[in-house]
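Per your request, structure below.
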């Protein structure tokens, strides 16, 4: 039996996790309202894995989660996969329509959702409800639950079709994200390798801290990969939180640690005085691979 900690039923995380573990019959889901508890459940050994959203097509890096992985926990990355984040405007249609039975957006007083989901729909909100109050909550599923529990207050949520159905609410507008092909990248973190499915794309994520900031320091780090023709898929500077302007470099590498070239490149980077923390070496799945 594998125990998986994740955000609530009806969240995008919930749908994405069930896609990764589709067909696995020995899985126990542990839903948590807060992402901190999703992490903690695996840290405490109550769960084997946590499902963590780390990047979105529209909004980019989910900084809070990335920083949590770097600063708060030591949970190795064991798999990454991509899942579509389709957002919808959800409430009770009967409360928000005019005498002609048409939806009247002006009757919506507040829109609530997860900050990343809200950020994916800013143009929609500006176009239809330019002055509406917005509020961030811990997940899209929590936002829909709040709408369910507060009838008659003119509140709408941004969330999934499943969350609307689970709570007996209506889809006032569907697929409202500002750009099509809106995907979220999820990371499975925990102490055991993920082996349920195989991918020929293996990645390694590392954090590099420079010994000091000198001209060309980062160039030296990147050249250790470049001349070995090791492909990097993402580089992001993250604050060390120790001093303004002090950064880690989060680097995703399209190569396994089991290769010959990558350990040699890491050795070269350490030889110039950098410190390296390996965050994980893991299979990477596209959405199509999991269908
Ligand atoms: O709130 C949810 O539904 C989540 O799964 C969280 C989350 C996120 O943290 O980025 C995941 C994907 C969505 O695009 C929006 C929010």
């Amino acid at each position: 039996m594998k125990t998986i900690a994740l955000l609530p039923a009806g969240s995008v995380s919930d749908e994405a996790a069930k896609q990764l573990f589709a067909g696995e019959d020995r899985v126990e889901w542990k839903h948590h309202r807060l992402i901190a508890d999703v992490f903690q459940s695996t840290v405490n050994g109550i769960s084997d894995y946590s499902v963590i959203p780390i990047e979105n097509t529209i909004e980019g890096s989910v900084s809070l989660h990335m920083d949590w992985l770097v600063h708060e926990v030591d949970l190795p990355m064991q798999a990454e996969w991509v899942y579509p984040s389709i957002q919808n405007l959800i409430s009770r249609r009967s409360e928000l329509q005019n005498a002609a039975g048409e939806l009247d957006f002006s009757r919506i007083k507040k829109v609530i959702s997860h900050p990343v989901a809200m950020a994916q729909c800013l143009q929609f909100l500006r176009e239809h409800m330019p002055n509406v109050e917005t509020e961030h909550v811990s997940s899209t599923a929590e936002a829909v639950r709040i709408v369910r529990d507060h009838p008659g207050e003119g509140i709408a949520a941004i969330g999934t079709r499943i969350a609307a159905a689970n709570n007996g609410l209506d889809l006032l507008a569907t697929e409202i994200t500002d750009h099509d092909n809106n995907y979220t990248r999820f990371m499975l973190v925990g102490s055991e390798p993920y082996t349920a499915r195989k991918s020929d794309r293996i990645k390694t994520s590392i954090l590099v801290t420079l010994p000091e900031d000198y001209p060309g320091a980062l160039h030296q780090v990147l050249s250790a990969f470049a001349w070995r023709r090791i492909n990097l898929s993402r580089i992001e500077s993250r604050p060390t939180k120790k001093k303004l302007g002090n950064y880690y470099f989060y680097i995703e590498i399209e190569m396994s640690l089991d290769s010959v070239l990558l350990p040699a490149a890491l050795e070269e980077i350490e030889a110039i005085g950098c410190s390296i923390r390996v965050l994980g070496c893991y299979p990477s799945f596209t959405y199509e691979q999991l269908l």
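The chain has a mean pLDDT of 96.

Regards,
D.
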